[in-house]
TrEMBL record:
The keyword Nucleotide-binding applies. The gene is infB. Belongs to the TRAFAC class translation factor GTPase superfamily. Classic translation factor GTPase family. IF-2 subfamily. It comes from Sphingobium phenoxybenzoativorans. This is Translation initiation factor IF-2. It is found in: Cytoplasm.
């Protein structure tokens, strides 16, 4: 995009940056309470007297002096919506599970959305202050979703907390920092800033405002920028403590004033040289956005390309069905349809209507979304239309599986089928131009035909490949010559040919694979 995005920073310019954390989990399991409790651990806020400005994200300075950025919009919908817009801002997910309630539908959605994004997870078992809390049961139930905590021999960190009683918070912070260390998060702070919009609104007094999470570089007051299809010049910046700031570096969230209009969550902000440039890029992006909206539905083709270098192609899919029995039958059949070359990856499956969460997940992963005896709810329908998600409805499992298999097969390279159509012995060789050779041939079996590909073998070893450019019999051009007859042939691009060699002619057919 006009050379302002997508460039890589040189390794020596990279400095450590704060991790960006999103909290997910089932409703009422304590996401908001935990966000508040963690916010309360900030040593800076303690000094300042605890002014809180809700801008969509906040930073905590730990007792050890480390910084952590928390996104203030909990839940997997926001997370995946951002991802669908190309903004993979989250480094670490905290999965909150209430110890008295256990794994619930949205817990499982959160797990699947996190897995689909490939973001590491820390499990926070919340409400352990409650007498009926059963943390061990949660660890065991997580196994069913391939989440193995350290205690059970896995590598997913877990921690028992009470957002209410504020216990386990230090340990949770420690685990976030440990995970962040493993990720070796870095960014170049000394360049033109780039970031993503976390949230945006039209403020009555201040005009359009957007909270931007800086990804790299340092955003400064006075910077010209483009954000989505809008442009602007940073008039002022406000941090999560309500303070006016002049600069914001990597992983810092700031409210930015001075935009031409309200951008969308997930939109990328890029600082540019001057106002003219900002307007030019904004216009270009706006045009691009219009074009994008009118292009075809996303397919799994991009997945195929990204997987080309790997040995196995992944076929992502989201499945919703009317009853658990159908879900199990479909997922089982899909898994059995996997081969060594292409594997079905069920990103999420569940019982019930197709929801917005299902649609955003399918959109972000460019996966088809299957409804078996279920339909999308109204909001999901609108979203699917907007994001051009491929929705498919079935009421017969066989049809569903056969169609998916067909699509999977379509992603495999076609099968190459070779048929030998004839053999000839080389009786004479004449030079003919730089690369070509003319040869006298005796057709031993089958047929030889003009235009066919051929191999020259000598003592059953292939010495060169060629194409029959033309055929002659008694001064006449012919298109084919049958067994038992002699002919002259012009052999294209032949570097090695001797009297006594065998010419083997073959036809190649490419056939679409089936599963
Ligand atoms: P969210 O929907 O996931 O954001 O959940 P909330 O943070 O709104 O919490 C839902 C309810 O659980 C509220 O009534 C909280 O007071 C309560 N709650 C949250 N954390 C704890 C906890 O650690 N212990 C207990 N006993 N209650 C909690």
């Amino acid at each position: 995009e006009i050379g302002i995005e997508g460039d890589q920073d040189a390794p020596e310019t990279l400095k450590p940056r704060a991790p960006v954390v999103t909290i997910m989990g089932h409703v009422d399991h304590g996401k908001t309470s935990l966000l508040d409790a963690l916010r309360g651990t900030d040593v800076v806020r303690g000094e300042a007297g605890g002014i809180t400005q809700h801008i969509g994200a906040y930073q905590v300075k730990t007792k050890g002096g480390d910084i952590i950025t928390f996104l203030d919009t909990p839940g997997h919908e926001a997370f995946t919506e951002m991802r669908a817009r190309g903004a993979n801002v989250t480094d670490i997910v905290i999965l909150v599970v209430a110890a008295d309630d256990g794994l619930m539908p949205q817990t499982i959605e959160a797990i699947n959305h996190t897995k689909a994004a490939g973001v590491p997870m820390i499990v926070a078992i919340n409400k352990v202050d409650k007498p009926e809390a059963n943390p061990q049961r949660i660890r065991e139930r997580l196994l069913e979703h391939e989440i193995v905590v350290e205690d059970l021999g896995g590598d997913v960190q877990d921690v028992q907390v009470s957002a209410l009683k504020k216990t386990g918070l230090d340990e949770l912070i420690e685990k976030i920092l440990l995970q962040a260390e493993l990720l070796e998060l870095t960014a170049n702070p000394d360049r033109a800033a780039e970031g993503n919009v976390i949230e945006a609104k039209l403020d009555k007094g201040r005009g359009p405002v957007a909270t931007v999470l800086v990804r790299r570089g340092t955003l400064k007051v006075g910077d010209n920028f483009v954000v989505g299809a809008e442009s602007g010049k940073v008039r002022a910046m406000v941090n999560d403590k309500g303070e006016n700031v002049k600069v914001a570096g990597p992983s810092a969230p700031v409210e930015v004033l001075g935009l031409s209009g309200v951008p969308m969550a997930g939109d990328q902000l890029s600082v540019v040289e001057n106002e003219a440039r900002a307007r030019e890029v904004a216009a270009y992006r706006s045009e691009l956005a219009t074009k994008k909206r009118t292009t075809a539905a996303p397919t799994s083709v991009e997945h195929m390309f990204s997987a080309l270098n790997a040995t196995v192609i992944e076929y992502p899919i989201v499945v919703k069905a009317d009853v658990q029995g159908s879900v199990e039958a479909i997922v089982g059949a899909l898994n059995r349809a996997s081969t060594d070359e292409i594997k079905v990856r069920v990103l999420h499956s569940g019982v019930g209507a197709i929801t917005e969460s299902d649609v955003t997940l399918a959109a972000a992963s460019r996966a088809p979304l299957i409804g078996f005896n279920v339909r999308p709810n109204a909001k999901a329908r609108v979203l699917a239309e907007r994001d051009k998600v491929s929705l498919r409805y079935y009421d017969v499992i066989y049809d569903l599986i056969e169609e998916v298999k067909g699509e999977m097969a379509g992603q495999l390279a076609p099968e190459r089928i070779e048929t030998i159509v004839g053999r000839a012995e080389v009786l004479q060789v004449f030079p003919a131009g730089k690369k070509d050779k003319a040869a006298g041939l005796l057709v031993m079996d089958g047929i030889i035909r003009k235009g066919l590909n051929a191999r020259l073998t000598r003592d059953d070893v292939i010495v060169s490949r060629t194409t029959i450019a033309s055929l002659r019999r008694f001064k006449d051009d012919v298109s084919e010559v049958r067994a038992g007859m002699e002919c002259g042939a012009m052999l294209q691009d032949t570097n090695d040919i001797k009297v006594g060699d065998t010419l083997e002619l073959f036809e190649v057919e490419e056939r679409q694979r089936t599963l």
